[in-house]
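Z., the sequence and structure:
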Amino acid sequence: MSEGYVIAVGSACIDENNNADRWPELGDKCLIRPTGDLVGGMIANAACVLAGYGLRTCMFDALNSRQADFILKDLKSYGLDVEHVRIDDSLPDAKCIIVRTPTDRAILVVSEPKPDIVLTKAEEDFFSGAAYVYSTPSEMRKIVGACAHMRAWRAGGVRIVLDVESSTYVEADEDLLKSASMIFFNEFGFANCLRGRSEAAFRAELFDAGVEVITVTLGAAGSETWTRSDHDRTGGHRVKVADTTGAGDTFNSSFVYCMSQGCDIHRAAAFANRAAADSVTRVGPKSGVGPAERIWAMVE
């Protein structure tokens, strides 16, 4: 993709990072130590990785003015276009509470409803001109008429990419999945979507609806990817793990980057798994940001 742009649809937030020596037992308590706030959020993390690879990447989000300066300054420092971020002071603060122990990590997403988004004519034109739209079902369902918009964009050549996790997926989102071009599931999200169907039957339904690529990430075990006519199983990499925050976002955006460059699913999976493994060796939600050449050198 030498020209064109990616639109990343979804919330950037402030990650409130904390360390703890242990997890409390039920009914117990433990002390946590704040280690500093960082700008995170699944979509923002993936968008920063895409920008780091040199793709023009635009955020489409809504923030209140209390957080906007801090978040937008950070996103712009990673090369993101933030002109299409709306400012709405009726919105609550967007944040996650992250607690790390010596052996594990937990993320508590502070969920507050956002109002529905009605796209303006200028925004509709903006989406129609994109090469890729990257989001989650939970973020896309906030756009009024999301399925109709997605199908129209896809028919016009835009590739719609959805990241699906079990924590936010609801059954009504299946229409959104069937309006996508590429779908990334983690293994738990994929299992949650089956609803009594076999994996093969579920994939066939998605392909029949026009989905081109389906990937299931398997954590340290790598990934599995299907198209209607091809299949890839790529293993993970053994690395010294410092922080797994943002690893899935790094995988997804790295895969999308490779597809934008004309790679097949095997090459894309090799790159994405290597990039995700590299990202967990450093601390922070955007530890996967870096030039593509560094990852290609490790793949080769």
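The chain is about 35% helix and 20% strand. The mean pLDDT is 93.

Let me know what you think.
H.
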